[in-house]
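Lecture 7 notes: from sequence to structure.
We start with the chain below.
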Amino acid sequence: MRMAGKVVLLLWGAQATQLLVEPPWRPAVLWDRVTLTCQGLGTASDTTWYKDGKRWGQKGLNNIPVNSSGTYQCYRPGTEYSNTVSVSDAEPQRPLPLPGPGNHNGRYRCRGQVYSWGSWVQYNTVPVTVTVH
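Predicted structure tokens for the same chain:
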């Protein structure tokens, strides 16, 4: 049997809306001065923001600075709700002293973890020598 043409099936549906975080690492923490960006179809003036599952008073903005901890989400008509982003008010980790003398002189470095591309990556800064006078 021979077909005269091809049948093309197009599926139409809601397009995903994405909530982006700047700086891009996870977990997002307030001391990093977090900004959220709602990306998707439609215009920024149609954006509705949600914090902790409740409508939040930031309607119509595409980018928002975050100044309180919570779980955030955005929505634009004709699309799906965005992914959720949790922002913590955790304090930054203190520098970790390397083995050294009993006073506060010594070599110090910072360690941290960044969530990137679906996995946690450990980062260490270059050690610095601190001399207390």
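Points to note: Residues 43 and 76 are 8 Å apart (CA to CA). The chain has a mean pLDDT of 77.
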